[in-house]
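(Deposited chain)
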Amino acid sequence: MLASLAATLAARSAAAQTPMPNDSVHAAKTLFTYRDAVLGAGFAGLTVAMFPIDKSVAGRLQNPNAQANQFFRNASTDVRLLGDPGATIIALSMYGVGRLAPWKNVADFGLHGAEAIAVAGTMTTLLKGLAGRARPFVSVDTNPRDFRFGRGFSGGSFQSFPSGHATAAFALASTVTSESQRWWPHQTWIVAPTMYGAATLVGLSRMYNNAHWASDVALGAAIGTFSGIKIVRYNHGHTGNFVDRFFLGAMVKPAPDGGAEVGVSLPY
């Protein structure tokens, strides 16, 4: 239920915060709004609220009956891969297809999705190292409050907080939702639940696999959601930015030998 709440918070925020295509000037001036403070407070509260129940949630998911379910075990592995490396592969594939077709909106989706994943991933990696939280699988009696500053830089067993898979999945979900609000605003009611629902399943799979606490997933969802929203807002509010001009200005055309040639229009 808490994971669903995180997805609902993210989906509503992405749909509400994204200005329409003719509002790029407004977007540039309002990169951060009061809604961001509300969303941030909501995710912060959700993360803190999960600390007292992290242990009990993990216990329920590690129940022998739940772990013995072959469908859940197979599905959790597939869904985990959807978050990492799946989210990155999807974003880069969308960019590539959009450039080759050419479909500008698809290229936008892919490029900005990859940017959001990179930005969110950088923040998550830094936080993992600084927080040094022990993962649930470290021992049968692992304490979810086992944090130690800087310990996360020494090994994966102490890189629990936040979830990198959830971060990537929610970064892609928020980017696609925000972009679809610009290109196909009437389809957002389908896109948002689909994307955020898939991202939520990624987070749940990490908990089911005993790799993360519930609060890890909540914070990962927050970082990913914010990154996607802000990347889209910034790029569409600053249409002449270096990254967009470089990557969306590249031209792909057939080569005489049957292959493909790529020309790049360098920013100036």
